[in-house]
Specification:
It is built from three helices and ten strands. By secondary structure, it is α+β, with helices and mostly antiparallel strands. The chain folds into two domains: 32 residues; 121 residues, no CATH class. The strands form two sheets. It has an eight-stranded antiparallel beta sheet with strand order 3-4-5-6-7-8-9-10. A two-stranded antiparallel sheet has the order 1-2. The N terminus is likely disordered.
């Protein structure tokens, strides 16, 4: 009974602050999608030099500051609009498929040392959203690395 009341209180509290519960786990502790939890507002993504490269303002689609739709989230996965699995979003980090860090958010935890964030450019008008192709099969998630990816921000989003 206590666990049921705790679950209801936890669910109610987290819903009020913008988090969507997935449900209780076998241990009775709730799990939350990291994208939903971390995207209660606009989030900017910075590369290993601290340069702002992209952002999301809806928690689903990622745009470059030039207005180009670059990718989208599907649960914790990041996909290109052509359907290619690009990497994972977890703990404020976007990692490539090898587990290396490509982008960080201001609230990112763990990972390599974050550089000083550069000033954000003005956002350009968004381009039309492309049609999402059929997604490739999600690969097995790689072990998280403490190193930066060899891919630049631009290379990460290339098809």
């Amino acid at each position: 009974m206590r666990e049921a009341i705790s679950w209801v209180l936890l669910t109610t509290t987290l819903t009020l602050v913008g988090c969507a519960p997935i449900g209780p786990t076998a241990s009775g502790v709730s799990t939350y999608s990291s994208v939903e939890k971390e995207t209660t507002g606009e989030i900017d993504f910075y590369d290993e030099r601290g340069r702002p490269v992209a952002y999301t303002d809806d928690g689903t689609h990622i745009f470059t500051f030039t207005g180009r739709p670059a990718a989208y989230f599907d649960s914790e996965s990041v996909y290109s609009f052509s359907g290619r699995h690009l990497g994972w979003f977890e703990d404020g980090w976007i990692r490539d498929n090898d587990g290396r860090c490509v982008f960080y958010t201001p609230d990112a935890q763990g990972g390599p040392v974050k550089p000083v964030q550069q000033v954000k450019p003005l956002k350009s008008i968004k381009s039309a959203m492309p049609i999402k192709a059929v997604r490739s099969i999600r690969p097995v998630k790689a072990v998280k690395s403490l190193s930066w990816s060899r891919l630049s921000g631009e290379q990460f989003f290339e098809d």
